[in-house]
């Protein structure tokens, strides 16, 4: 290791009042006469805000969708040598807690306040008009990076953000809810909930830069985890080239191990055969290693498998290889993330600053994700759209896109089976979305700070929460939580510092009370007692039938079963004490409702309000125009064409030689649509999540000159996944069409954008993949979406007659 470089002394000056941000300019302490004669400058006036003396660098690492039993550092099967290196030189925390969902944990982490209180009761995609679910950070809750930046830190964020509402992810902003608006000087990554690792739609600072051109370079493919590490190291070197002493705060949030599980085969192949024993045996092996390491007490019990998960021995042998490969890819993906964090750590060490860098590395923003359903999925969006798939359908669809060996490549957006996630959360029950149980909210934390930690390799068992991280960083940096920011009085921090525990393994537990709530699954912790209240809904099932029992006039949360655990004696929640302590159950229920009201948790299930028809009103303007040079429109910002009739039209200029290429395309072959010209003929392709692919083409080539083309979809009814009839028009004349029996009910993609005049990144119609981005060779004057089309009575009658005739003959199958 490079010898630590001492910080140069800063110019002396009176320490400012750090409770009010931004910091006030220092008073002029020189002399200003009428001329320079006798005048004396005060050079402190031109210095930027300075951090308190001795404030450390901070590297905050957050892994996505991973469980307590995943990394080898905590007994898991995934090799994590860099995580272990930090643990052996620092501390393992085995009672650290997050929320059970992505955005809420990130909001709590970066504000040191409870997630509902800062508007993130759910993910940004499900924002609603209730205070705890707006996805809008309130001004009275200034975030950690803003506080650090205004107190003299250089700040940067890399990777996953997931804190910008859907409708604000474009060039019109507003940018106050982008990373730069939260106080980061620099951002490189993606704004949404997940991203393809091969074909991301990237943002840099306040601009969407799209998919890198080299993403499909076979010899040197783009891979986002590598690029994140490259950009982080480049930023660190740039900061140090300018200022040798200014402390930095780096937030490194990996896309791994959220779906899609994308990684090169060489990484996945390291685990060939390692999971052939199945998830039941894997849990037993992991549990034994956890107890050997001491991260799980010797007297703890391994919790049983819930009946929602199949036993491995009941999986047909012909499917076991398919399932095993899913986990091999996930493991390789995760090991690669450890590798790239290691590259950043090595760069800090080469600067001579690792000893004075506080590293906080959280392995999972929630428990491992069970959202791949029982079978796993070739496309992660099938679950979110409520599309159930059987084993047989999964096998057929996987074969369509290259077979199980293509799992992890860009041709699929895969997610492993729910039981692998359950195994990843060993020794606990359940996982992501289930805030009532430890499998959803207890994740590994490693802290590394050689300058201050007296017992490297130690273990800390105090109850800690994600809100405590920001409070601890401010504490060790000597920065108070501000009382006013931009003139706005601030909500006090909800987290408490655990800095004392860094120095003393016997330090008392400071965070003694905490509520948890995610999609109706809720818990109340107080002084060792944990009340768990889980809704009966299986987390990976979002079908109308599964959601119906939670409708506003149906669900009674007090009817949900309540389980009671005393965690000091029961590390894994193996023994329900509710029957023996009804008074404690009642006490904690009452406390939960009080906390829920205080922190804006109510109304429960606001996350699912859209499923019950509580949606934003459609805009009064029903037509949306896009010019020919608009690209990379975020998937949550496209016109709302779902579940009803709509039209897409375009004004073109077709040259004498003819034209071809994409007019407009959204997302890719795993969910999206493209209106394009192929061999001179107008063509429309619609992918219903890769499960069904529909294609309609005109009977004759386009004319030349000024041309209007139109795709008209007449839905059978305004209902989720509505089928209907497509008609293609050229200059108002019908030229082709066809039936679409199923449409996407909620969202085509979690990350792939919409482009005018081309199809960036992964393409919608694989027939033009070798011509990607297949730019239109004529001129596009504008593309217009109409989400309230008005057909003539004659056209409407004809279209619906065809639709009615075709509808009776089709059903869902692969």
Automatic annotation (TrEMBL):
The record ties this protein, via PANTHER family, to: ARYLSULFATASE FAMILY MEMBER, BLL2667 PROTEIN
UniProt domain Sulfatase N-terminal: residue ranges: 56-479
Tell me the superkingdom of the source. Answer: Bacteria
Name it: Arylsulfatase
Family, similarity comment: Belongs to the sulfatase family.
Checking InterPro entries in the record gives:
Alkaline_phosphatase_core_sf, Sulfatase, Sulfatase_N
Q: Name one Pfam family in it.
A: Sulfatase
Q: Where is this region: Disordered?
A: 1-21
């Amino acid at each position: 290791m490079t010898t630590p470089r001492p910080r140069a002394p800063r110019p002396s000056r009176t320490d400012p009042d750090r409770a009010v941000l931004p910091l006030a300019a220092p008073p002029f302490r020189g002399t200003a006469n009428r001329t320079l004669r006798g005048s004396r400058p005060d050079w402190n006036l031109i210095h930027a805000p300075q951090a308190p003396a001795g404030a450390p660098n901070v590297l905050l690492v957050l892994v996505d969708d991973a469980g307590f039993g995943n990394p080898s550092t905590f007994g898991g099967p995934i090799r994590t040598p860099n995580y272990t290196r930090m643990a052996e030189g620092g501390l393992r925390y085995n009672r650290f807690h997050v929320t059970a969902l992505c955005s809420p944990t990130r909001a709590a982490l970066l504000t040191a306040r409870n997630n509902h209180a800062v508007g993130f009761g759910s993910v940004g995609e499900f924002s609603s008009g209730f205070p705890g679910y707006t996805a809008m950070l309130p001004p009275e809750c200034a975030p950690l990076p803003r506080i650090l930046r205004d107190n003299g830190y250089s700040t940067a964020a890399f990777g996953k953000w997931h804190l910008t509402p859907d409708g604000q992810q474009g060039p019109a902003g507003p940018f106050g809810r982008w990373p730069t608006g939260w106080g980061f000087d620099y951002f490189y990554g993606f704004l949404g909930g997940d991203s393809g690792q091969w074909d991301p739609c990237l943002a840099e600072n306040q601009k969407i830069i799209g998919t890198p051109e080299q993403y499909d370079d076979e010899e040197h493919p783009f891979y986002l985890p590598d690029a994140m590490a490259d950009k982080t190291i480049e930023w660190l070197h740039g900061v140090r080239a300018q200022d040798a002493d200014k402390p930095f705060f780096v937030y490194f949030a990996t896309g791994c191990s959220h779906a899609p599980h994308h990684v090169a085969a060489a990484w996945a192949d390291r685990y060939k055969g390692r999971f052939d024993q199945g998830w039941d045996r894997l849990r037993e092996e992991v549990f034994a290693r956890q107890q050997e390491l001491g991260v799980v007490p010797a007297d703890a019990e391994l919790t049983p498998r819930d009946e929602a998960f199949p036993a491995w021995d009941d999986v047909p042998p012909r499917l076991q290889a398919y399932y095993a490969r899913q986990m091999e890819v996930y493991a390789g993906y995760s090991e690669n993330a450890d590798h790239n964090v290691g590259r950043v750590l090595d760069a800090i060490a080469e600067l001579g600053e690792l000893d004075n860098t506080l590293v906080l590395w959280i392995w999972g923003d929630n428990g491992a994700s069970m959202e791949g359903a029982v079978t796993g999925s070739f496309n992660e969006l099938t679950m979110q759209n409520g599309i159930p798939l059987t084993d047989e359908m999964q096998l057929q669809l996987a074969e369509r896109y290259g077979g199980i060996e293509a799992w992890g490549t860009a041709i699929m957006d895969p997610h492993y089976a729910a039981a692998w996630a359950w195994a990843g959360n060993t020794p606990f029950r359940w996982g992501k979305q289930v805030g009532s149980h430890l499998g959803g909210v207890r994740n590994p934390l490693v802290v590394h700070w050689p300058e201050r930690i007296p017992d490297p390799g130690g273990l800390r068992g105090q109850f800690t929460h994600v809100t405590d991280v920001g409070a601890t960083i401010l504490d060790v940096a000597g920065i108070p939580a501000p009382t006013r920011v931009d003139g706005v009085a601030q909500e006090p921090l909800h987290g408490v510092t655990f800095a004392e525990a860094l120095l003393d393994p016997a330090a008392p537990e400071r965070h003694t009370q905490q509520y948890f709530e995610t999609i109706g699954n809720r818990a109340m912790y107080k002084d060792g007692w944990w009340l768990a209240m889980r809704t009966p809904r299986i987390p990976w099932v979002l079908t109308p039938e599964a959601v119906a029992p939670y409708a506003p006039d149906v669900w009674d949360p007090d009817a949900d079963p309540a389980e009671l655990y005393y965690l000091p004696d029961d590390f894994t929640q193996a023994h329900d004490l509710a029957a023996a302590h009804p008074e404690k159950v009642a006490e904690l229920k009452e406390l939960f409702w009080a906390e829920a009201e205080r922190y804006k948790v109510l109304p429960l299930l606001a996350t699912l309000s859209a499923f019950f028809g509580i949606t934003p009103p459609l805009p009064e303007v029903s037509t949306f125009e896009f010019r020919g040079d608009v690209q990379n429109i975020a998937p949550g910002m496209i016109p709302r064409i779902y579940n009803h009739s709509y039209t897409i039209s375009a004004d073109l200029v077709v040259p004498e030689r003819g034209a071809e290429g994409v007019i407009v395309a959204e997302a890719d072959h795993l969910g999206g649509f493209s209106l394009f010209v192929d061999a001179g003929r107008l063509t429309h392709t619609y992918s219903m999540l890769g499960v069904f692919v529909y294609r309609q083409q005109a009977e004759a080539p386009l004319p030349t000159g000024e041309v209007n083309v139109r795709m008209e979809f007449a839905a059978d009814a305004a209902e989720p996944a509505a089928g209907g009839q497509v008609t293609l028009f050229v200059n108002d004349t019908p030229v082709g069409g066809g039936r679409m029996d199923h449409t996407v009910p909620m969202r085509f993609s979690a990350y792939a954008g919409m482009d005018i005049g081309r199809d960036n990144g992964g393409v919608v119609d694989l027939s033009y993949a070798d011509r990607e981005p297949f730019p239109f060779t004529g001129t596009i004057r504008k593309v217009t979406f109409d989400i309230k089309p008005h057909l003539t009575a004659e056209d409407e009658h004809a279209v619906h007659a065809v639709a009615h005739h075709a509808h009776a003959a089709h059903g869902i199958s692969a």
